[in-house]
Amino acid sequence: MHVSNNHERTLTELDHTRLVKLTRQLRSGTAQHETDDIEDALEMARLVPSRSVSPDIVTMYSQVRLQDSFSGSRYQLTLCYPSDAEPSAGFVSVTSPVGASLLGLSVGATARWVTPSGESRAAEVLAVLFQPEASGDYTL
After folding, report:
1. Which CATH number fits domain 4-132: 3.10.50.30, 3.40.50.150, 3.40.50.300, 3.40.109.10?
2. CA distance 2 to 136
3. How do residues 107-131 score in pLDDT, each as one tens digit?
4. Total-model pTM
């Protein structure tokens, strides 16, 4: 289940460090399958200091507005770590296919992923409604 997109990914150095640590923990545990998509995202990323990340980049705990490329419906998601995931409330884990596909994208980019059931999905990032770094929180 590999993610793909047509845009470069930008990650903060802090997010990258934490996500590398997370993937190592998952790889050594029972959730090894959860790391493939996020490892692909980490490999493709350009790293920047937290204070330098553009406010239109999807970072950890960013809330984004998306538009489904097939149905046109719009929805909001917050990208989070697995321990905070609550999909029914719009909190999606970075280790999920949709979460990994969003990480590091900018407004205007299209995220593409394959669902666990094998369905291809895509959504355009319309807006970053909240980004911790843009609000001055460089430690979240």
Report:
1. 3.10.50.30
2. 33
3. 999 999 998 899 999 999 999 999 9
4. 0.90
